[in-house]
Design a protein that fits this description.
transmembrane, membrane, Growth Hormone, Chain: A, about 80% helix, transmembrane transporter activity, MFS_Efflux_Transporters, mainly alpha, globular, cell membrane
Amino acid sequence: MDPLSRVRNSVEPLWTDGRGWILFFVSVGWLLTLGTRYAFPALFPQIQTALELDLSTLGALYTLLWATYALGQFPAGYVSDLIGIRRTLGYSTFLSAVALLVIGFVSSLELLAIGMFLFGVTSALYGPSRITIATRIYDDRAGTAIGLTQASGQIGNMTLPALSGFVATVFVWQAGFLYIIPLFVIAGVGIWVVVPSFDDVGDGVDEPAASTDSIREIVAATCFPLSLVLTAILALSMFLIQGVTGFYTVYLVEVKGLAPTTAATVFAFLFAVATAVQPLAGALKDQIGTRSALFIVVGVLSVTLPLVTVATTFPQIVFVTVLLGSMFGASPIALTRLTNALPSEIRGSGLGLLRTGYFLFASAGSFVVGTLADRGLFDESFFLLTILAVVVLVLALFLDRLSR
């Protein structure tokens, strides 16, 4: 069977029994949630001029947005266990629209900070639930479903920042967020209509867990050897992504000598590659298992990171950028295994707790690479990231030996 047929056979079952519409609207919601987050830095030049802010202030605001998102993962998972996945996803999209409405009327630094904080909180609600719903409605295809959902986020990363920048140029910078509001509302309505309640799918997608577990009990049920190793793999993988994406454009301009517009195009191409890599990685996990799939995608990444430093011509840079896209493949592979390993009664809160930990760790990736770059060690930062990729490979060796 050729590779295309394998992919088709992995994807087609996702659309049976009405589940395709669930996957579609959940993916649209994630596209908007993630794409809007990357629209903020795209509009920073206009915001800086309009509000007379310096770059350090803008950087602090963006850190606030991501830190709020990271810290909101555990509460979001807990809320999902309490009120159900359907309500959590729906409320997240509707409340995100409200947060953008606040940003649409910003006229001061204080209001902008409030708006970005609110969007960090409301978008955090979406993270754990869009993963747990895939594991609830799909059995042996959860990896493919999660990969497709994550790929939709990469489409948002490619499209929304560029579209917001265009809208802001034609009108005012606030318009770069206002046009997204009706899209969030449409996604929310779609989720509310198609995501089933109670016993429509399996054991009930939207049945509230009515959990009264204490945090100590949740931690005890969540932290076992397999989950800790998978969380470490995710933490290192996300650190790699943050480290590379945070300064790849700057690296291409300052070290490789590309024009800023060309570097931006190559950077967008990296997310285009990610759009293809993530569903393929999820399907690969479903076909050959977690450990083998991780060895393939992280193995490619381990070889590619040093090659970035020796690529000199434009075709070589494009080639290594394609291979760099493999770094986006580890997440759907490890995340599917982690989600399925957690007890169903605390799956949302447990996953949220672990996501808070590895997102906070990963948020340091850009800072570490930026610090090395300031000291003239840009190339060396890629060797540091290579070491971390090798650590992921070592951790993957233990996966088949561990159980709950």
